[in-house]
Automatic annotation (TrEMBL):
<protein>
    <submittedName>
        <fullName>DUF3108 domain-containing protein</fullName>
    </submittedName>
</protein>
<dbReference type="Pfam" id="PF11306">
    <property type="entry name" value="DUF3108"/>
</dbReference>
<dbReference type="InterPro" id="IPR021457">
    <property type="entry name" value="DUF3108"/>
</dbReference>
Length: 223
């Protein structure tokens, strides 16, 4: 069921299977609300002696995501940490990348790597034609980047839950050897159903296995 309160987001939990270079990893994602416009989005998983956990804290005001902080922490063999801290109204933001802090321009509407996914959902919830192409600004490492996202088409995605109606979008890259695609479900507040990222001919696929919105499990025949 598509959320009618388009100036906010409904809390959810989701589980995904990730496959890359012959290995599978279960990802767990959860969006929590404090009931006063504040949200915390967590995402992470672990396989053998490696894993990661990331968290984004943001607010939703007037139908827009206003990010506050983002932290990514690798665990085990991949002990990598990233952070982004954004203060509304400040000219710069702080980004931690490979052990060094960077002062980056705080362009209007700048998001972090995780909150940008919720911002996309909110944009589509507010858009009478959610098939529009999109441009979002993301603080990523040492740079602030504009992500150009184009609508590809409507598709049925086969999952462990069954076939799911989705909208397929592609993020455009300057590097022809990289590609990033995302499929979202209009019936479930544009929840992410699938992503495929290819770099150096190595695809990484993320596919939904189960989810609930406000504690209610989603099913392919949700209306």
């Amino acid at each position: 069921m598509v959320c009618s309160a388009v100036d906010s987001l409904r809390p959810y939990t989701a589980e995904y299977n990730t496959s890359a270079i012959g290995m599978n990893l279960t990802l767990n994602r959860e969006l929590k609300s404090d009931g006063a416009g504040g949200f915390t989005l967590t995402n992470g998983g672990k396989i053998l002696v490696a894993g990661f956990h990331e968290v984004s804290v943001f607010r939703v005001e007037n139908g827009e995501v206003i990010p506050k902080s983002y932290v990514y922490q690798g665990t085990g063999l991949i002990n990598r940490r990233r952070e982004v801290h954004i203060t509304p109204g400040e000219e710069t933001l702080r980004s931690l990348y490979k052990g060094e802090w960077y002062e980056l321009p705080n362009k209007p509407g700048t998001l972090d790597r995780l909150s940008q996914q919720e911002h996309l959902r909110l944009l589509m919830l507010n858009d009478p034609n959610p098939r529009d192409d999109l441009v979002i600004t993301v603080a990523d490492g040492r740079k602030v980047k504009d992500y150009k996202i184009e609508f590809v088409g409507e598709e049925i995605v086969e999952t462990g839950l069954g076939p799911i109606k989705t909208l397929h979008f592609e993020r455009l890259h300057d590097d022809p050897d990289r590609s990033s695609d995302i499929w979202v479900a209009p019936d479930w507040d544009y929840l992410m159903v699938k992503t495929v990222h290819v770099e150096d001919d190595k695809p990484v696929e993320v596919l939904l296995t189960k989810a609930s919105i406000e504690g209610v499990p989603v099913t392919p025949d949700s209306e």
